[in-house]
Write a structure and sequence with these properties.
Elements lengths: L14 H5 L5 E10 L4 H12 L6 H5 L2 H11 L3 E6 L21 E4 L11 E8 L7 E7 L12 E8 L8 H9 L11 H15 L1 E3 L7 E7 L13 E5 L5 H7 L8 E4 L2 H4 L4 H4 L4 E5 L28 E6 L2 E7 L5 H4 L6 E9 H4 L2 H4 L9 E3 L9 H19 L2 E7 L4 E8 L9 E7 L8 E3 L7 E7 L6 E8 L5 E7 L1 E3 L5 H9 L3 H12 L2 H12 L5 H4 L7 H9 L4 H13 L12 H13 L8
Parallel strand pairs: 1-2, 2-3, 9-10, 10-11, 16-23
Antiparallel strand pairs: 1-4, 4-5, 5-6, 6-7, 8-14, 9-12, 11-15, 12-13, 13-14, 16-17, 17-20, 18-19, 18-21, 21-22
Helix pairs in contact: 2-4, 5-6
Length: 614
């Protein structure tokens, strides 16, 4: 048997490793695509990229200043495209920092009526100091940008930007180029469109470094045109797919003897297949319940940590052709919308190499490899869920209607300093009689929402909020009155007449006293890695003084002098912070020590003009 099969579960990769810049480089631009999204994960990503010590997701979430600085540094360099209506809801209220993701996240729809389903990261890293060639990284995943904890599969490739375009990259270039035009409701921000166009131009010329024993890599994308790609099938076939349909499986295994065909899926999906479909596979497998974790215990790893532990989300098609093994991985399941009709937008990568190096189909699923986490599927009769399925279908249909509607939120400033949000839609949304609808501003939570029986061009009040809690994101709850089934999700809107002071209000809410202000200044001036370690220690109840010292002891002046002789970025960050925290009328701020303001004015007098925010 092959010593090191390509899909060996021991070959693990941290999500944070995929996003981490190579030594000597900083993130310049990144685009991500996902089917579903949750804001907590989206907030962690910039901090993970900004602070190389950020390994643990919950640790980062517990440190608001780290989240804030990650967003301030990198949110404008990151674009996330997700399926409209598939941002997860937060009924108990969302982090107000989600406001800083308003231009980062763009909701899209699939042009051929299916799901927008690709899971991709494309990152460009620029050399620190500006000397040298930028580098690219491509990551194809089977997981979404959420807290989902499942067995997944990923491919990460590093590459140089060459002089000429490579035909190999054309499908990926088509996908990335198409993204801004797929926006639903609110259009893609101009700066995002420009950044994506620049990334696509570099992607066209990317020369990828191949993993060991990989002789050839090809890419494919479905769902953008009428042309539908399918993996090539040889004499042996292995399919790993959490979702399956009879037609797709029958098509894929055509011409393959049953004894040479293996299928790994979810038991609840296999139970829905026809017996004749299952008979085409001599080996039908599911994850063993004990594979929830390797020792059968509850996993304590974060979603940014090692191989996730619950359920199957990995997707792969393994085939043997002549003396080669081909492994196709990506976002697509073995379903009709993904591989037959091409309604879904999907992305795939096929890796080819000699079977003696990559292993055979049997090697991938052998008891010494992935097979130790699997068991043979035992057929059973599924529960009758016809009523629940019908209710779910009704809700899904209305979800698509809402996701396609262009919602508007208009801000009206009240005398008490609060904001009254007025909700309307560009066109009338017909709410079915058998569906109850509730909408709310996501930071406030569902208790501050309204129940709607009509949604149209006529404005209606949604909520009264402090300015710091205003975002363009709207929480949605649909309830099927017949079955009681509920679905919650988040929708974006067009936010109109937003006061300019909102970001400053969010900063004041997070940097609530002088100690927090000085911690943030030290973060801006300090070494990124050390700052991250200290912040995360504080987030877990530790003490910052061990790294930064007290306000009197910390070498703020020394660090500011050092920053003045550098590229100016740190001082620009301080200038941005001070200008936002100051009261526009008095030019003062209670949380900024007077001593620091005097010191800062001295530095401003000698700062280059282009570093100032006058």
């Amino acid at each position: 048997m092959q010593d090191n099969a390509a899909l060996d579960p021991e070959n693990r990769a941290l999500y944070a490793e995929i996003l981490r810049a190579p030594a000597g480089y900083d993130l310049d631009a990144a685009v991500a695509t996902t089917y579903t999204l949750d804001f907590e994960t989206a907030l962690v990503v910039p901090a993970t990229l900004a602070f190389h010590a950020a390994e643990n997701r919950q640790e980062t979430l517990d440190t608001p200043l780290a989240l804030l600085e990650g967003l301030e540094r990198l949110s404008a360099r990151i674009a996330i495209f997700c399926e409209a209506g598939r941002i997860k809801a937060m009924p108990k209220g969302a982090n107000r920092l989600t406001a800083l993701l308003e231009d980062t996240v763009t909701e899209v729809t699939a042009p051929r009526g299916g799901a927008f389903h690709p899971k991709l990261w494309l990152l460009r890293f620029a050399p620190i100091g500006g000397h040298g060639q930028s580098r690219l990284r491509l990551a194809l995943l089977s997981r979404n940008l959420t807290t989902d904890a499942s067995w997944d599969l990923s491919l990460s490739l590093d590459g140089q930007i060459g002089e000429t375009q490579k035909d190999q990259n054309a499908p990926l270039v088509d996908l990335v180029t198409a993204l801004p035009g797929l926006a639903s409701g609110r259009t893609t921000p101009d700066h995002v469109t420009k950044m994506v166009s620049s990334l696509a131009a570099d992607l066209a010329r990317a020369d990828w470094e191949h993993p060991e024993h990989i002789r050839k890599i090809t890419f494919a994308v479905n769902g953008l045109t009428d042309r539908v790609w399918q993996p090539q099938i040889g004499r042996k076939l292995g399919i790993i797919s959490p979702f399956v349909t009879d037609r797709a499986l029958t098509t894929l295994c055509r011409g393959v003897a049953a004894e040479n065909a293996s299928l790994l899926s979810r038991a609840e999906e296999l139970a829905l297949l026809k017996p004749e479909t299952l008979s085409r596979f001599g080996n039908v497998l599911v994850l063993d319940e004990m594979a929830e974790t390797e020792d059968g215990e509850e996993s304590e790893q974060s979603s940014m940590g090692p191989v996730p532990a619950r359920g199957l989300h990995a997707k792969a098609f393994i085939t043997e052709r002549y003396s080669s093994t081909e492994i196709t991985m990506g976002s697509g399941n073995a379903t009709s919308p993904a591989l037959l009709g091409g309604e879904n937008v999907e992305v795939f990568a096929t890796l080819s190499g000699y079977s003696s190096h990559l292993g055979t189909v049997e090697d991938q699923m052998s008891p010494e490899r992935l097979g130790r986490f699997l068991r043979t599927y035992v057929p059973y009769k599924p529960d009758d869920t016809a009523k629940e399925d019908a209710a779910d279908a009704r809700l899904e249909q209305f979800r698509r209607v809402l996701a396609g509607a262009s919602l508007n939120l208009r801000c009206e400033a009240l005398e008490n300093g609060q904001i009254l949000l007025h909700l309307s839609a560009e066109e009338e949304v017909v709410i079915p009689d058998d569906i109850d609808l509730r909408l709310w501003p996501i930071v406030a939570g569902s208790d501050h929402g309204v129940d709607l029986t009509a949604l149209n061009e006529q404005e209606r009040p949604l909520a009264r909020l402090p300015l710091r809690d205003v975002t363009r994101w709207i929480g949605v709850r649909m309830r099927d009155s017949e079955s009681g089934l509920e679905q919650d999700f988040t929708l974006g809107s067009m936010l109109v007449d937003l006061p300019e002071a909102r970001t400053s209000e969010i900063l004041r809410a997070l940097i609530e006293n002088r100690d927090a202000f000085l911690r943030y200044i030290r973060l801006l001036l300090g070494d990124v890695s050390e700052a991250a370690k200290a912040l995360f220690a504080a987030g877990q109840g530790g003490d910052l003084s061990g790294v930064f010292g007290t306000g009197q002891e910390s070498p703020i002046l020394e660090n500011m002098v050092r920053a003045l002789s550098g590229d100016g970025r740190q001082l620009r960050d301080i200038e941005r912070l001070v200008s936002r925290l100051r009261d526009p009328d008095t030019d003062r701020c209670d949380i900024i020590p007077e001593e620091f303001l005097h010191l800062w004015e001295t530095f401003r007098a000698v700062m280059p003009e282009d570093n100032r925010h006058d």
